[in-house]
Amino acid sequence: MGCIVKAETTSSPLGRYRVLDLTDVQGLMCGKILSELGADVIKIEKPGGDLSRNNGPFFHDKPHPQKSIHWFALNANKRSITLNIEYKDGQEIFKKLIKAADFIIESLSPGYLVNLGLDYSELSKTNPKIILTSITPFGQSGPYKDYKGCDIVYEALGGFMYCSGDPDRAPLRISVEQAYLQAGAQAAAATMIAHYYRLQTGEGQFIDISIHEAAVQAAQWSSFWWEGAKHLVHRAGNRAYRAGFSPRIIWPCKDGYFSWRIFVAQHGLRTKAMVDWMNSEGMGTKLKDIVWESLDFNQVSVEQFIAWEQEFSPFFLQHTKSELFEEAGKRGFILFPANDIKDIAENRHLQARGFWTQIEHPELGTSLTYPGATAIKSSELYYGPGLRAPLIGEHNEEVYVREMGFSKEEMACLTESGVI
Amino acid sequence: MRDSRREEALQPDALKGVKVVDFTWVIAGPTVTRLLAAHGATVVKVESSRRPDMFRAYVPMAEGVPGVNRCFTFDAYNSGKYSMTINVKTPQGLELANKLVRWADIVIESFAPGAMSAMGMSYEELKRTKSDIIMVSLSLLGQTGPDSSRAGFGTELQSFAGYTNLIHWPDREPSGTGLFYTDFIVPWYVICAIIAALEYRQHTGKGQWIDISQIEAGAELLAVPILDYMANSRIAAPSGNRCQCAAPHGAYRCQENDRWCAIAVFTNQEWQLFTNAIGDPAWAKEARFTTSLGRKQHEDELDKLIEAWTTNYPAEVIMSKIQAAGVAAGIVANGKDIHNDPQLKHRGHFKLLNHKEIGLHSYELPSWRLSKTPADIRMPSPCLGEHTHYVATEILGISDTEFIELMQAKVLE
């Protein structure tokens, strides 16, 4: 038990397809998802290894291109070959690879592949079924085409930051990078939509992903508040703008923080459930007779609301996150602790669902526990990582010699001339 | 760009012929079906006037006038869909819903686990109705596991998923986001799973049940810090707007009230370009600022000096000056700025459509641009039950006589 997946589920959704992954940190997530969907994803690295291998953190904090945790997390299940597509020989090899490929994903600057004669219109002559997904900071054209981006810039332009953080300080981003991962995951969805069209028609196409616009799509809220009400949704710290008012949403408790809010009307009974618990412990007597479900936000003054909130605070400080969460389960109010990464790694629910996957790292002499299964569970299909991320050019021989038929002598020549 | 493409007339839809019965509500599920509709899928949103999508009763309402068809929030996440009202708690209503299931390829729902079973529409029951049906169950915590029955919204769930703790000034309590972050992670996985299921059915004739949770999708986008914990026992610490390997790195106050510009300088070369762009002030040449490590070490002073410059100019001017020098910068966009963003305009991010009650206003297109099968929004969000008659008679082939009987029996409410 523990999931809807049947024991014999082994068929992978994209098991029969091959992806050539030319991305850097901006697009690695797209190939990661396609690999977890079962595709044979070949990461094409620069001879000597991709620069994204230099992204920390590192295993045991020892910086080394074969020990990047960042690389492990975003390249599990992929194969790796090295290839310099700026060289003529490299381009010829790339074109051969394309003949046997179904998807290409890349995050090179707009125009880079055009200059090499490897843009979609050229590649589709070699393989009309190919789907080419390009992930760039602001898209392939437009006034920002050549602008520089990075996580904080996308979160700023995308609208996330203006609605996050404390009102008396600068708008805030999420402390770990998100925009590239958002763009990669959205790129995977778009690629699958194009794949469905190809299944019906046999035709490939070109997909233009803008990391900037992906960040906008991941924060869709403030734009229609402006258009619909000329209201600028604003960061409000531990409060959040909801239904014309900003109820408190993040609260301190005995050992950390949690999310909960006072509901009225439709969800008012959930507030009553919390008040009942307080009353059972001799607290919150002032709140006892309030009929939360019959109240309307618009009829309650802000002062009244805040006065109620102050009645809850002392009660919360007497309880731990886990006590609050347990009681929420029993009494049916909506409350979730503010977990940190350790809490998530040790979460009982994720463990019970079999979310984690052990992957062997023979070179490190250990195995590491990965988040598994692309978050998808299916009664028929298998999703999830199986192999650790590849070493630099680990599959050169497998791909170039065994699959493409290059001779040992040709391999030596290509290596010496810096092509692979 | 998009508009000129549209003029090329009748580009095909990637998901033409895909039929979806949509029981989802609020944000995450409706976002999935909105995007499927934008690619040509036929989506029938099943609602009940007794318990409509809660966003129909939310704000902001057009002109501030309440009405189930006037909410901009509902409107934003439901374009391109048909709305049919059915009271599935009546036997005839359930039979009608099952007719939709027989028509459909995909049934998608985002109720608390168990709610579909309670309605007589569990996966096993749907399968008996249509053997190759694809059912997608989208929830906070998944269909199984000790806490699967917990109720809630993305607002609270994003704390459980680890994000609130990471939106946080190190010297303060977590502030979190006023948005719904995990609601905007899970849809991308759902779309991948749906296409995979359609292909599997095409090859095997089999349907399937898909279980996707916001908590797990959220964890996928924290894979790097999670693996860092697994390998190094490090618990990712909140860092405000700072970044381990860049300085300056933050949002800097600009000239007008609450206007900010994000700036990030990673390398010494970028530092050179940046200092040129701000007019080579004397302080920028001080030894403590000339190396990456020096700038990190003196980041508090550095931030103050930069803000003394940025407060002299509008945010847009700062962004242009710094980007012109080749360094990453971007205004902290509010809702109005997103409408005015020249790059989003160029990409055709917004499309104007006339909604019956809300009037002419803009809808947001998907972030991606597919060259042969571009997304489009054909219809505004539906009014409650707007297409009940159309779906019943045109899609399900119910006669007008039967339709009137169902109406009189209060099944279509």
Molecular structure report:
The complex is a heterodimer of chains A (about 425) and B (about 425). In chain A, the strands form 3 sheets. A 6-stranded parallel β-sheet of chain A has the order 3-2-1-4-5-6. In chain A, strands 7-8-9 form a 3-stranded antiparallel β-sheet. Chain A is elongated. In chain A, about 55% of the residues are buried. Chain A contains 16 helices and 12 strands. In chain A, α7 packs across α8. Chain A has helices at about 30-35, 70-75, 90-100, 110-115, 120-125, 150-155, 180-200, 210-215, 220-230, 270-280, 300-315, 320-330, 340-345, 350, 395-405, 410-415, and strands spanning about 20, 40-45, 80, 105, 130-135, 205-210, 250-255, 255-260, 335, 355-360, 365-370, 375-380. The two termini of chain A are about 45 Å apart. With about 425 residues, chain A is an alpha/beta fold. The longest helix of chain A is centred in the middle third of the chain and has 23 residues, at about 180-200. Chain B is α/β, with parallel strands linked by helices and about 425 residues long. In chain B, about 40% of the residues lie in helices and about 15% in strands. Chain B is elongated, with a radius of gyration of 25 Å. Chain B starts with a helix and ends in a 5-residue tail after the last helix. The interface between A and B is large, with 155 and 157 residues.
